[in-house]
Design brief:
Elements: H1 11-30, E1 36-42, E2 49-54, E3 90-94, H2 96-107, E4 116-121, H3 144-147, E5 159-161, H4 173-183, H5 186-197, H6 205-208, H7 234-248, H8 257-261, H9 268-283
Parallel strand pairs: 1-3, 3-4, 4-5
Antiparallel strand pairs: 1-2
């Protein structure tokens, strides 16, 4: 039986956001406030979008905002993408999840706030995997990350465009999924992740789209000494994903770009969400809400709980 889905925003919402972004971009570039604006433009297929960098005010009309704006543009401000980052002060279009990534990068001294002009978007959500480019944004096509979003109205931006209309309550599918994982025994969880990681082909797409994998040379690419096996074999795959999960603990912004980019449909965000839950439970810490220099796993305090030391 086909399920009825509620449309979350009509064309007027996205048109208003698009027009506000274009107006702000024209102003910033015309006045010389910024050297470039990182945003989205229409893709080659109808309904699709791709990241873009606008340096000419006359090109501001190329910018769009639609349910297809899934990319986390914070990626293009990192050292790993230094070849595409323009010189000078840069403006960036940022959804709530993108703002969390920017906060993390600012806290880790990868960005300077005075070099950024953030155009925040009050975001209804974007479409998830499997949604057609011509489909509307509904409770059935919205990305899974957007169902749990708590930062629809970005805080800390220089300007915020758009207004989020009232949204329906989403069924707790994601919470139930995490609860099933937590109910497993350690052996069951090991088998669960071992099965998923066995499909990994080590394409490194998860690393390439992550704003927090900003090292110019990844430790895992080195072979003298070799930190991790580079071929897609079970032991190396398991080590790679465990190391990456620990590396992101207390840092992941929840943009789910890693999971979206994975060609093998490995539920990487489920692992990241589990790690985030642990950080919240143990340290009452949530990544990316405000810039902090050090997270709980990178800072030592005398009053830290040491009961885990045997």
């Amino acid at each position: 039986m086909q399920q009825n889905h509620t449309q979350l925003a009509d064309d007027s919402y996205f048109a208003a956001v698009t027009n506000a972004i274009r107006t702000e971009t024209t102003k910033l570039l015309s006045e010389g406030t910024v050297a470039a604006v990182i945003g989205y433009q229409a893709g080659t297929r109808a309904g699709t979008v791709i990241p873009t960098i606008i340096t000419d005010a006359a090109k501001a009309g190329d910018l769009v905002f639609s349910p297809g704006c899934v990319n986390n543009l914070a990626l293009y401000l990192t050292k790993a993408k230094k070849e595409v980052r323009p010189a000078g002060k840069v403006a960036i279009i940022a959804k709530g999840c993108d703002m969390r990534a920017l906060a993390g990068l600012l806290g880790e001294s990868q960005l300077k706030r005075e070099e950024l002009h953030i155009i925040g978007v009050a975001c209804v959500g974007v479409k998830g995997a499997g949604a057609g480019s011509g489909e509307a944004l509904t409770t059935g096509t919205i990305a899974r990350k957007c169902r749990e979003c708590t930062v629809r109205a970005p805080e800390g931006a220089d300007v915020v465009v758009g207004a989020v209309p009232p949204l329906p309550e989403f069924s707790p599918v994601e919470a139930e999924e995490l609860a099933r994982l937590e109910a497993m025994t350690p052996a069951e969880r090991w088998a669960f992740w071992k099965g998923h990681f066995s499909r990994c082909i080590r394409c490194m797409a998860c690393r390439q789209v992550c704003p927090f994998c900003y090292c110019e040379q990844c430790l895992c690419d080195r072979n003298r000494p070799q930190a991790l096996e580079t071929t897609p074999r079970p032991a190396g795959n398991m080590a790679w994903h465990i190391v990456r999960a620990m590396h992101l603990a207390g840092r992941c912004a929840g943009c789910t770009e890693c999971e979206r980019a994975c060609p093998m449909d490995i539920p990487l965000n489920l692992l990241n969400r589990k790690m985030a839950r642990e950080l919240k439970t143990l340290y009452d810490f949530e990544a990316g809400l405000v810039p902090v220099e050090k997270g709980p796993l990178t800072e030592y305090r005398e009053e830290d709980d040491q009961s885990f030391i045997k």
